[in-house]
Amino acid sequence: MWIPTEHEKYGVVLVSFRGTVQHGLPLEIGDTVQILEKCEGWFRGFILKNPNIKGIFPSSYIHLKNAHVKNKGQFETVIPVEDSVITEMTSTLRDWGAMWKQLYVKNEGDLFHRLWHVMNEILDLRRQVLVGHLTHDRMRDVKQHITARLDWGNEQLCLDLVPRREFSMVDPDEISVTELYRLMEHRHRKKETSAPASTHHLFVHVKSLMSTNLGEELEVFFHIYDGRENRPLSERFFVKLNKSGLPKSPEKTERQCTLFVDLGSSDLRKDVYIVVHIIRIGRMGAGEKKNLCSVQYRRPFGCAVVSIADLLTADSKDDHLLKVYACNTESEWYQIHENIIKKANSRYNLSGSNTGLAVALQLLHGDIEQLRREYMVLFTRGVSITRKLGFSDVIMPGEMRNDLYITLEKGEFEKGGKSVARNVEITVYVLDIDGQILKSHVAAGSGEPGGDEYHSLVLYHNNSPRWAEQIKLPIPVDMFRGSHVRFEFRHCSTKDKGEKKLFGYSFVPLMQEDGRTLPDGTHELIIHKCEENTSLADCSRYLKQPFSKTNLPSNNQTLKGTKESFWITSFLCSTKLTQNGDMLDLLKWRAHPERINDSLSKLKEIDGSEIVKFLQDTLDTLFGILDESSQRYGLKVFDSLVHIINLLQDSKFQHFKPVMDTYIESHFAGALSYRDLIKVLKWYVDRIVDAEHQDHIQQVLKASEYIFKYIIQSRRLFSLATGGQNEEEFRVCIHELFMSIRFFLSQENKSTSPVAQTQAVFLRTFPAVYGELLKIFTVREVAGFVRETLGTLPTAVHADCLEAVKLQCIAKTVESQLYINPESRCILLPVVLRILQAHMQEQRDLVMCARILTSMLSLIKKEENGTAEPVVSEEVELIVESLLGVLLRTILEISNRPQPAGPAMRLQFQDVTGEFVACLLALLRQMSDRHYQQLLQAFSSKDNLRDFLLQIFTVFRILIRPEMFPKDWTVMRLVTNNVIITTVLYLSDALRKNFLNDKFDYKVWDSYFYLSVIFINQPCLQLESFSPSKRKKILEKYGDMRVMMGCEIFSMWQNLGEHKLNFIPAMIGPFLEVTLVPQPDLRNVMIPIFHDMMDWEQRRSGNFKQVEAKLIDKLDSLMSEGKGDETYRELFNSIIPLFGPYPSLLKKIERETWRESGISLIATVTRLMERLLDYRDCMKLGEVDGKKIGCTVSLLNFYKTELNKEEMYIRYIHKLYDLHLKAQNYTEASYTLLLYDELLEWSDRPLREFLNYPMQSEWQRKEYLHLTIVQNFDRGKCWENGIILCRELADQYESYYDYRNLSKMRMMEASLYDKIMDQQRLEPEFFRVGFYGKKFPFFLRNKEFVCRGHDYERLEAFQQRMLNEFPHAIAMQHVNQPDQTIYQADAQYLQIYAVTPIPESQDVLQRDGVPDNIKSFYKFNHIWRFRYDRPFHKGTKDKENEFKSLWVERTTLTLVQSLPGISRWFEVEKREVVEVSPLENAIEVIENKNLQLRTLITQCQSRQMQNINPLTMCLNGVIDAAVNGGLARYQEAFFAKDYIMNHPEDGEKIGRLRELMFEQAHILEYGLAVHEKFVPQDMRPLHKKLVDQFHLMKSSLGIQEFPAYVRASPVHFTNGSPRTCRNSVPNIISPDGGRGVARRSYPAVNRYSSSSLSSQASNEVSNITGQSESSDEVFNMQPSPSTSSLSSNHSASPNVTSSAPSSARGSPQMAEKHKHSRENACLSPRERPVSAIFPNPLDPAQRAPCHQIGDTTLPRSDPNLSAPDKVRPTPSSWSLDSVKEGAPSFSDSFGKLLCPPVPPRPPYSGSSAKNMRSQSPVTSRSPQKTTVPPFTPSPTECQSTSLVSNSPVLSGSYSSGISSLSRCSVSEASGTELPAGDHPSHPLPPPTTLPNSVSSSSDEPIRRENKTPPPYSVYERNNPRRPVPLPHSLSIPPQTDPPALPPKPHQLRTGSMKLDGTSDPRVPRPRPLPRKVSQL
């Protein structure tokens, strides 16, 4: 049976549990669980991180922990009873764990590894804490370490700052807001800056001396030297080095490491140096022989110097190699370091090129105790301390030091009978009072232990030596008296055995008779002569003699006159001994009572360090004198006491205050002193007002704290001694004293007056007195003193300094122990509030005001937890009444002020704002219902209440600002929000009661709504963005405050009634912003408000256009900011029933009378949201440009077409433009900007400043746009488009006579023409991309697009790019249309294959003589339609011959806009599918190959080819394939009797195929002839082989000789070029005289496989492409899967297209209307074969009037036409050399045209293709009879229902897919109609263009009625002034000569032909009229 648990409430999982039992709860090791019930070894409960799932688990798997249970019962919460630091560590590490893994994913390796180490470190420390074996101090250190690490990690991971007190997290509910703010501020400041340390220490570690000439031991001395004052700052550090230059005692680190301690900040200057002196121990001369003498001397070696400032930059213990210098003359050794510092180069030089001293130097900061903790290793390993000379900047009490430093300066010696100067060495001894040498009391410096004696260095042959050697004598204090120092002088001989001969001595006593020590300074000592063997053991003999020349008696002339002297400098650093006689006189006052007056006067002149040394003794002396002679010396003693007290205020001695405090508490014994002290103090206070000089009085008042301490302690001692006598008298004295103080404080003075300054001095020290008074008086009495004293201060004070001091006094009062007591607080509060209010109203001293208010409110919070609830409530009431209004005004003032410059000022400014805000929040949090009621009732009028509400709402808006608190202060923000929402709930009642109905006030309500909206939208309340644990904590503590505020908004809105109209449409945007918050409850509450708005707007104006407009505008801006989501769209659109009390918006609208317009609005908004959501998702960082561009295009079109929002439309135009520029899509960028350009006119209308455009006229902006667009067209190599714009601009300049700019524009236009001719343009590939599946963005979902590839981009690269853009997409491996399962799948499918463009501009592409550079533009620009072919087998596949069943499915795609345009891709609007039969396929393949052969032959003849290889390989491929069964396969398939019988309708096509085969043989024969002419010698064998194989091929085709019509037209080129023979007489006559050979365009060759190529040959042809320099299509072809090689073993796979590279991939065939464009586009003028074209008369059955043909075949945009009539026909392909029957007279009208002759062919008409599939069926057109002479119809003629072309199918053909000419495309493009009929007298007109001529109605040409071009079509721009002529490349100049080419047959089949034979030979061809730009 399950029993609820009593104690087992909380546990940690020890072993993972899979939960395989029924109701089992899976557990992971480390999970924490809350236990609800137990039963026989099982627990039931849940994991704390997922409390919704409950289950059972074994109790043995759980480690139980103590826990505290809150709200026992169903909703109980369990808090583990453990150290809060442990709890925080656990939760923090869990949060970090998830984020740590993300760091790895984001590739932030550095932080990943650092965090890993810190997490491990925290885990180790956690274990230590949990084990609990740490000492209290160690535990504290560990916790400090842990919290430091936690804070570091939180900061690195951008987590929240945790407020802590004593390492524990603080619950914001348990402390006041002001205190919380202080904690946060303290932690924030700590994080920002650490206070600079005032003390510094230099660590030195000597490594070695490197030198080539060592061999002697060395002594190295370091000291710190002040270069400015030329004196040492520290004692010396001494290291001994061995003969190798290494430390002598390497095992003793303290001998080689030292710490120069107590350097002040002033010592870290550039002119403070570390100076190193090196002394060698050895022979006198460095190069002397060893055997001369064994005595060793200390001799100079070298010196090194380094500036301390150089170490400030070094972070770690850097090793330094110091250069060692030696002095040039030994006598200057004493100042070598000064010379090095001054860079006196002539006085020193490098001691050796390789000499250097290796040392480690490091500056450490902080006090010595801190260093001991931080650098524990340093101190445990051993380091010697090197002290400063003198005391440090701060002297600590208890510091013991007694060091005497003596510097051996110089000596003056006589020769002593020697011919040369002496080598003098000094030996120093210290002797005690008994004449005994003190052992180990002479030290050369720190580092080495002291010795018994010290030997100076020896300077060679110098009678005036200067040593400047410092020695330290650490003599104990008790041995100082009677001790002396003796200096013995010896001459060191270098000749004899190196003996040292004594010749004199000096001495100096350390203490004088009167007890003073040897004074600091330089002393000139007497050198007493003595013999070499004199014994100085008995010192009493010489101590009686004088020692110094300064104190010699005047009668002792002998010693005074001697020249020999010895100078030393002494410096005593002692905490116990003094050199000051006055100090000694004062301390011994009883011995000399007569000197008391003098001594007291001189006390002020004594150095402070001397006084603090003897502080207790001095104070005893003063009070002793006071007790004995108070009348006589009372005032002087008082002044002396004041001097000492004020001395301790100095920062140097401030640490002695505790010494004085201890003295007062423990040692002070002046029980009677209080009377005298009170009397003197009152005497001074009474004199203040009248005194002229206030300085001394101010000193007295400055010391008042300690004076009161002495007074109170003295009174307490007296009371103890006497049992409380004279109590009343004492109280009276104190009252009188305070009356005097109040009187002087009440004086009003100017700020400059001395009295005002004295008042300020008193106020500074006054708060310190409270604590002392409390020792004797009650709390209420003291509070009374303080209130009266502060109350006497004048309110209107003119003294600014006094005002500040007054506030400081109040601040200290509020922070004092007195104010903390509730009893005294109620007495003091009114006076504090009065002063505070006065200051805050005048906005003065706000920093101090904030501090006072913070302290006051902190206390209130503390008290609230106690018992004094009524007192607190009363205080809150007082504060609210006095300060709430002024506090709000202050915050408003501060926030609206401009921020001051300077970081320090800004910090202070920010602190003040934050503190006032914390005070306001603390005050509001304390307010109860009663307080709010009283507050609101206190307003005398509605206006006052209105002002208050506006003020508080404004302040709340300021508090919500993100910059109010640092971004990681989430705790503070949440507290702020909690207070705001509570206050708003109270105030909303006042709003309802006072400002509704007739008293309605829009401003207050607007302010309320605006506040509510920004409250809900704060980032810190968006719980969805937080981690689960953080979200859970916030919800538990505060709930979701957004929902609470949302409900309040809804409730208030409902109360508004008809006043709602005031907020429509103004509040639509803000409320919309709220609904975008992804919180379902909030949305359900807010969405109905929109229904309400629409309803009210409908009532008011009959529609809700305003609502709609505002809704759309705001949606756009909000979505751009990243708000909103998919659920939101559904909420608006309401496809799904939503939870919550409110139905969705759509459902509410459906009940209204205005439902239709409402539903329409919702549909529009939903569609806009779909696009905006896509746009937002695509604009996220890291998304690819392609996606962003596509999305922007979708949105831009939506704004234009559906919403007609011009401004939004223009904004998105510019966003799209920027995206294109970033992606370097310059052409697309131009087209995009053109959209805006077209909205503008050439007018002078002024335009406002907009986006980045200045205020300017419309003309200027349009001019700027034109220039920008031209520049981008130029960068995108789209020069033809730029030319049109240049012309338009030039026309404008011309109309304004701006010839300067006109000239520039013409030059720019000319430069663009040059670029067309001179620069190479890459031909882009086009790819069809299908996006299938629901996971794609809306603008792509289940749509297909055609995309223009990047330069050099082929299929594989494009596929890879698309897969990178959509990494989750699956590439489909087939090209079939997907089924519905793919469309509806929750996935992404990409279907990609290459397509072939179908150009529109056929006239330019077909014209001979137009350079390829020009044609290349028309081949790939303004493309609407694309083609794709897919081969497949129908019926049974013949394994022997696959061509029998090889069909081609031809798909034509029509786009919504032409490419290129405003995007690199556009959606497919329409797709048409037709099937091409095997026979038609075969015809196309052979046509293609024939065209390729003709082109190569022409190129070869015109010498365009650099080498003949391409022709060789092509011939080889065709002949070899034919021999091996290529053409034979076709014969076998289609010429068999079975096929002919089964397909009687294909008769003509079979004839056409036969014709083409013969033609191919003929071309091959001619090609071999040309090949023979140009073939190089080494290729002759191959040529011979080709000739032999060709004969075999002819015989296999059954050709013995060519038919008559073939022979009649021999292949003939004059001069090898078709272009030179324009006017020749035609000589190509058909056998019956009436037939001419029609010119035919040959489709391009297949690149890899064709009807005449074997597999091998295909590869060879593909290789050709790399060798040809021409840009012909021939060498850039892409294979079409429509055909395979004709070799029997090759068959094309239908799947080849989806994955093959673009050069080897199926290229869909073009729809026939535009088919020819790509064929001829790729042929240069020289390559295109030329032949005479004679139209054949039509068959009578097929005759039709030309205008009828034109009318029925051309697509129209006429609205009266039925849909099928508007469809473009798909005519079949043409071949350039098909034989047509024409009137013989035609030949007379042409010049002689020479080309490879083509055999005449029997008439042939195309039949319909089978199974045409198209979404737009072609209507049947009946042939009609006419009088037109019969022409042989072209195979492309559409004659019956569903006639389809047998267009060329390019089996390996280039993606441009050369196909035959299309009747429609050319006639439409050219607009020129040719006369028909038998009119021999009329030659055909040349293709001329007369732009401005107008045709008569009879011969009006049929104008191309294509689909409506996009609004940015650069070709159809409208010029308001005059028509813009087409670029030269598009217009055809009139010619007088006959045309270079006869008209093509299909040109004779378009409408508007004159039938009466009177047609004008020069029919003009007008260019298309420009379109008028639509204005948005």
The protein's oligomeric status is single chain
Shape: extended
Helix content: 40-55%
Distance between the termini: 79 Å
Main beta sheet: 6 strands, antiparallel
Strand content: 5-15%
Let me know the number of strands. 43
What's the overall average pLDDT, rounded?
Answer: 74
Which parts are unreliable, with pLDDT below 50 for 5 consecutive residues or more?
862-868, 902-908, 1134-1143, 1604-1976
Protein described:
It is a single chain. By secondary structure, this protein is an alpha+beta fold. The protein has 65 helices and 43 strands. The strands form 11 sheets. Strands 1, 2, 3, 4, 5 and 6 form a 6-stranded antiparallel β-sheet that branches. Strands 34-35-40-39-38-37 form a 6-stranded antiparallel β-barrel. A 5-stranded mixed β-sheet has the order 18-21-11-15-22, with no helix packed on it. Mean pLDDT is 74; it is low at 862-868, 902-908, 1134-1143 and 1604-1976.
Give the structure's gist in a few sentences:
With 1976 residues, this protein is an alpha+beta fold.
Topology (elements, then pairings):
Layout (H helix, E strand, L loop, with lengths): L2 E2 L5 E4 L18 E8 L2 E6 L2 E9 L3 E4 L1 E4 L6 E4 L3 H22 L3 H23 L4 H21 L7 E2 L2 E2 L7 H16 L6 E12 L6 E10 L4 E2 L4 E5 L15 E8 L7 E11 L14 E11 L1 H4 L5 E6 L1 E3 L8 H7 L5 E3 L5 E10 L2 H7 L1 H6 L2 E3 L15 E11 L11 E8 L21 E3 L10 E8 L10 E9 L7 E10 L11 E6 L1 E2 L10 H4 L13 H5 L3 E10 L6 H7 L8 H7 L5 H6 L1 H14 L1 H18 L9 H11 L5 H14 L8 H8 L1 H19 L4 H19 L8 H12 L1 H7 L5 H13 L8 H16 L1 H4 L1 H20 L4 H19 L4 H28 L6 H24 L2 H9 L4 H19 L9 H25 L7 H15 L11 H11 L2 H16 L11 H8 L4 H22 L3 H16 L5 H8 L11 H5 L5 H24 L6 H19 L2 H17 L3 H12 L8 E2 L8 E2 H18 L3 H17 L3 H20 ...
Parallel strand pairs: 15-22, 36-37
Antiparallel strand pairs: 1-3, 2-3, 2-6, 3-4, 4-5, 7-8, 9-10, 11-15, 11-21, 12-13, 12-14, 12-16, 16-17, 18-21, 19-20, 23-26, 23-31, 24-25, 24-27, 27-28, 28-30, 29-31, 32-33, 34-35, 34-37, 35-40, 37-38, 38-39, 39-40, 40-43, 41-42
Helix pairs in contact: 1-2, 1-3, 2-3, 4-29, 11-12, 14-15, 17-19, 17-20, 18-21, 19-22, 20-23, 21-24, 23-26, 24-27, 26-28, 27-29, 28-29, 28-31, 29-32, 31-32, 31-33, 32-35, 33-35, 33-36, 35-37, 36-37, 36-38, 38-41, 39-41, 41-42, 42-43, 43-44, 44-45, 45-46, 46-47, 52-53, 52-56, 53-56, 53-57, 53-59, ...
